[in-house]
Write the structure tokens for this entry.
Amino acid sequence: MTDGKRKLRVFDGTANSPLAIEVCRHLGVEKGDIVVSNFLDGETHVKIGESVRGAHVFIIQPTAPPVNESLMKLLIIIDALKRASAAKVTAVVPYYGYSRQEKKTSGREPITAKLVANLLTEAGADRIMTFDLHAWAIQGFFDIPVDHLTSLPIICDYIKAKADPSEFVVVSPDAGGVGRARAYGKRLDTTIAIIDKRRPKPNVAESMNLIGDVRNKRAILVDDIIDTAGTIAASASMLAEHGAKEIYVAATHPIFSGPAYERLRKAPVKEIIVTNSIIIPEEKRFANLTVLSVAPLISEVIYRIHNEVPVSSLFE
């Protein structure tokens, strides 16, 4: 699939090895030779097992839980590749950890999403590829190119095959997600609704009221991240109370922390649709979970970057 003059290499940072293997298969390249290990005290050690001199290297490494370990591995791999004379290093970060800390909400707080951007740049990354940032403004935290991809077309194509779009209504679980809901609504050619909620403290959401009509509709709750699933579970219950005949959940990043499994298992949801941006352990999977792959899109974007073909046309 590759035809660029500079050698293309794809390395697995170990946070999502199945995704890295799938990307390599789509590209028709062998996975790069790398050993990522830990010393007894927990320090990460990286050994690149092949020449990357003059190569364009892509590292598949979501900064998924354990977030700090995944991030540190990514930084060390970038440093190792640059010291091995790789011509360009692109960090493919399907899930960008710390993206929810993109602004100060009160005094004496960090802006950690910006700090992570600085760390990746200082480590030597020449380009970043990521999916569905919690806040789109994070792209501006970088002084290097950022390819901000979205799983929206992948999820919408899957939903369109289920029923007539006129039967659906797209629902944002909070006011902050209205832009995302509108994008889904436009792609599916359907109406949207909004749940107005108050969040008294992190990871605790209290749904207040529904703006819009979901009665006798197939409601699709859309979000970028499912973490503890408190917001999604409460929102699904509210939609059921307001007469939605079926409730679906669609999100890019399935973190599924803490009580998420039990909350989602008990929620009045017909299907939960996510992507493989993050590995979902077997113990966090349930019967109504559907996982869509972002590997074909990542592979196509890698091919276009490597061969200097425009990426934006993929989403037009």
Summary: The chain has two domains: 8-150+295-315, 152-292.
